[in-house]
Amino acid sequence: MTTPILELRGVSAAYGQIEVLHGIDLTLQAGHVLAVLGPNGAGKTSTVKVIAGLLRPTNGRVELCGRDVTNASADQLSRAGVCVVPEGRGVFPRLSVEEHLKLSAWGTGGREARARVYDAFPRLYERRKQLAGTMSGGEQQMLALSRAIARQPALLIVDELSMGLAPMVVEQLYEHVRAVAAQGVSIVLVEQFVHDVLGLADAAIVMQHGTVVRSGHPRDLAEDLAGLYLAASR
Ligand code: ATP
After folding, report:
1. Does residue 86 lie within any of the structural domains?
2. Is position 10 within any domain?
3. What is the model's pTM?
4. Does ligand 1 lie within 6 Å of residue 195's CB atom?
5. Which of 45, 50, 193, 213 most suits a substitution to test ligand 1, by most atoms within 8 Å of the C-beta?
6. Assigned domain for 44 exists
């Protein structure tokens, strides 16, 4: 078995005195897509923050390619190739597509990075002069994704890509995620609702109340999910 790109072992984390993650275990193999699923408040974003170095664990261990990064800063992790597309897109409405890409492709040879992105997202090439604020939600999310890709991450974490988007648009975005994964980028895909994420993922975990309640192959989890979500919403 090769060394996983990411491993969390017994990770707990808190905001002040209040513990919100209680011993999280997860493993992401290099080049795989891991789906992190769970209802509102389950602790998904807090887990993302731990992986990105924005929330320091109170317990447990985080490893990146077998290296202990439990206490690494967001800065160090970013330089090690960890890249987050946060919930809510985070594009600048008054900047064009091209300007976004110029801002995010530092250190990666701007022109080549843009060419790579336009190759992967022809729609963004067509819209390169357009202000992000005038684009559709799906296109904005595509832009958020492309900015991360411009940086050639080793590990890409995407928090709620599907938020507020029509299922058909989400499907198209997942196709892009699939293409990014095919280039060898390891991906953590966080989603509240399942959509087709299970068809895309190589592995999945389900979180609830700050713990992992299921983990395994997406195919084996599909049946459990409806019941779990129902229980969580009671
Ligand atoms: P969502 O889908 O709503 O983003 P989530 O699964 O990502 O939910 P988290 O955002 O990680 O869940 O929240 C887990 C718990 O931590 C919740 O009880 C939430 O209220 C709490 N929490 C999140 N952020 C903070 C914060 N900055 N300060 C205090 N508590 C927080």
Report:
1. no
2. yes
3. 0.90
4. no
5. 45
6. yes
